[in-house]
Design goal:
five-stranded antiparallel β-sheet; single chain; two-stranded antiparallel ribbon; rod-shaped; 341 residues; 11 helices; 7 strands; Uridine Diphospho-n-acetylenolpyruvylglucosamine Reductase, domain 3
Length: 341
């Protein structure tokens, strides 16, 4: 006896409990439906509990709000007035420490006081930078997860449309037997006539595609973070020598001894510009110390410079991406060149 589905009107066989087109149970299979409902009672309880869990849309809104909160916060951490004041005060203390005269009776005591103050500033600066990194990473991850949810939702809707339309390409990929109950299925069936489960294997393919998109999104987030870091570092390095000149005191301290190259590729220091025999000036040494510090060179470099002899020839050292080379002669003074490696 031929029966018809009350949902879609599709003709079904006498022994079929579910419509092979829409998957809805047939009226005569009410007893089977009740038995299935009794078995699925725990699942319904779990579904009630799942209602307490935030929906995907709420999660998506939360991720977008998190990104809008944490990314600006990360930028603010390293651009706030307090952070800039801390950096400026730290640099000023370093310069004052380097300007101390070793011949002074209170040199050692003042040097230790400055060292403690500088360490305190360094600690505060490091904390701000750590907070900025953490906020930036959370913001980027939020963007990546939000994008992943959007892609998954669109893919799910697309798959649903394809299943409802009975796409031929999907039908050719269906197995000969239901993967849930093993019942033989015919070409064109979207749902098993025995158990009512979807018989296409598009869900597995969809999961693979979803994983692929997740990997792509994570890679894009990492690439964005790396490009941002490299862009910031390139911008800083492009003007690093001009910034160092200003940081060391500008024309007030460096004009007589320090020259920034026109193309910004380096800095040259000459402690005896007129090549006067046995010439020495404390201000020249002060400029060398300040430029050295502004470029992030360790104190060991300046000590090596001061201990260089004429017969040692040209000396060089690379630190923090900058190569410094120098020579010394009693009649020419100390000549130093800083350049990027």
């Amino acid at each position: 006896m031929i029966r018809y589905c009350e949902e879609c009107g599709n003709a079904t066989g006498e022994d079929e409990s579910f419509c092979s087109k829409c998957g809805k149970p047939i009226a005569e299979a009410a007893a089977i439906d009740k038995l299935r409902d009794a078995k699925s009672a725990p699942e319904r309880e779990r579904s009630k509990i799942s209602l307490l869990v935030p929906t995907k849309r709420l999660v998506l809104i939360g991720l977008i709000l998190a990104a809008l909160f944490f990314i600006p916060k990360a930028i603010y951490e390293v651009n706030s007035p307090d952070y800039k004041d801390t950096v400026a005060n730290r640099d000023e203390c370093i310069m004052n420490q380097q300007d101390l005269s070793p011949t002074s009776t209170s040199y050692q005591r003042l040097y230790e006081i400055y060292e403690e103050i500088i360490s305190s500033y360094d600690k505060d600066i490091k904390e701000c930078q750590t907070k900025a990194w953490v906020n930036g990473i959370i913001g980027l991850l939020s963007i990546g997860l939000a994008f992943t949810l959007i892609v998954q939702d669109r893919k799910k809707k697309q798959r649903s449309k394809e299943n409802d339309a009975g796409d031929e390409s999907v039908q050719t990929a269906r197995p000969a037997y239901c993967r849930h109950c093993g019942n033989p299925v015919q070409e064109g069936m979207a749902y098993c006539s025995c158990c009512g489960k979807q018989i296409s294997n598009t869900q597995t393919a969809g999961k693979r595609k979803t994983r692929r998109y997740v990997v792509m999104v994570c890679a894009a987030v990492v690439l964005l973070a790396v490009c941002t870091i490299l862009a910031v570092r390139y911008t800083d390095n492009k003007n690093i020598f001009e910034n160092a000149y200003e940081k060391a005191g500008g024309d007030e301290v460096c004009k007589k001894w320090v020259t920034v190259m026109r193309d910004g590729s380096g800095i040259k220091i000459d402690t005896n510009p007129r090549n006067i025999e046995e010439f020495y000036d404390d201000d020249a040494l002060k400029a060398v110390r300040r430029i050295n510090n502004a470029l992030g060179m360790p104190d060991s470099v300046i000590e090596k410079m001061l201990s260089t002899r004429a017969l040692d020839g040209r000396q060089s050292q690379t630190y923090n991406g900058i190569t410094v080379s120098w020579t010394y002669h009693p009649d020419a003074g100390l000549e130093i060149v800083y350049e990027r490696t």
